[in-house]
Amino acid sequence: MHHGEGPVEWLSEDECWELLRTQALGRIATSAGGVLDIFPVNYYADGANLFFRTSPGDKLVELTINENIAFEVDAYTDQIAWSVIAKGTAHALERQSEIDQAENLPLNSWIPTPKSVFVRITPQSLTGRRFEPGPEPEWAEPS
Question: Is 2-76+87-131 assigned to CATH 2.115.10.20?
Answer without folding.
Answer: no
